[in-house]
Amino acid sequence: MSQPVLHVNHLNKVYGKKNENQFHALKDVSFDIESGEFVGIMGPSGAGKTTLLNVISTLDQSSSGTIEIAGTNITAMKQNQLADFRSEQLGFIFQDFNLLENLTVYENIALPLSLKGVSTRHIKPSVMNVAQKLGIEKIIDKYPITISGGQKQRVAAARALVHEPAMILADEPTGALDSKNAKSLMETLVHLNEKLNTSIMLVTHDPLSASYCQRILFIQDGQLYKEIHRNTTRNSFHQEILDVLAEFATSNELE
Ligand SMILES: Nc1ncnc2c1ncn2[C@@H]1O[C@H](COP(=O)(O)OP(=O)(O)OP(=O)(O)O)[C@@H](O)[C@H]1O
Ligand SMILES: [Mg+2]
């Protein structure tokens, strides 16, 4: 089997310094994401989902344990190396898409490459290639204010993908969307995953969005609680997800 794109091993995250009020937000978390997998992370509010994503995305530091992304141990890296690693190996999709209104679609997609200092003549083929794959080549010279919500999402996805990262990370990307746009964003992610073999890790509260994933890891109180695989239709996977979330609701009532 090929090496996983993400290998998380005995990961711990404690907020606060010694002798302060400490909070153990991640407790001995271990899991892998295989290359080309689409994995969802779910769990109650405060479970540690964003903490996990921030530590994996190198925006925050773990307290112990290791994280390997595409074979590189990021827990051993220095701050300046981390910034380079992040800009090369990771793609991000944010809740509000973060498109810059005074840049065209083309310029928005090109941003990760421009920031890396890639030369203009190398940027164009990469931008046009990813725009074509996402069906937005016709709106490439427009400004975000003049395009639809669905097109904005595809621009955000193109920007996350243009530098060919090892993995895309998304925290609640459908959180601010109506159900139609949420569905269309999830279909875009499925397209990236199935057609372009992009590895995706998605944090979401929304069971319907999660049902588009191949596998869901549930975390509770900073620990892995359960994992389920999608073996059948999306509808029955949706129901399975709702059943696990109902277990959380019941255990909270017992507390
Ligand atoms: N900077 C911090 N300092 C101290 N505690 C923190 C800090 N950030 C988060 N926490 C605590 O860590 C726990 C996990 O927070 P986290 O944001 O990862 O949860 P989450 O699963 O993303 O929740 P939500 O679903 O509400 O977004 C929470 O109890 C939170 O209060
Ligand atoms: Mg969160």
UniProtKB/TrEMBL annotation:
Keywords associated with the record: ATP-binding, Nucleotide-binding, Transport
Leader sequence residues: none
Alphabetical list of PROSITE patterns matching this protein: ABC_TRANSPORTER_2
Family annotation (InterPro entries): AAA+_ATPase (IPR003593), ABC_transporter-like_ATP-bd (IPR003439), MacB-like_ATP-bd (IPR017911), P-loop_NTPase (IPR027417)
GO CC annotation terms, alphabetical: membrane protein complex
Transmembrane portions of the chain: none
Coiled coil: none
Domain ABC transporter residues, every copy: 6-246
Official protein name in the record: ABC transporter ATP-binding protein
Taxonomic path: Bacteria, Bacillati, Bacillota, Bacilli, Bacillales
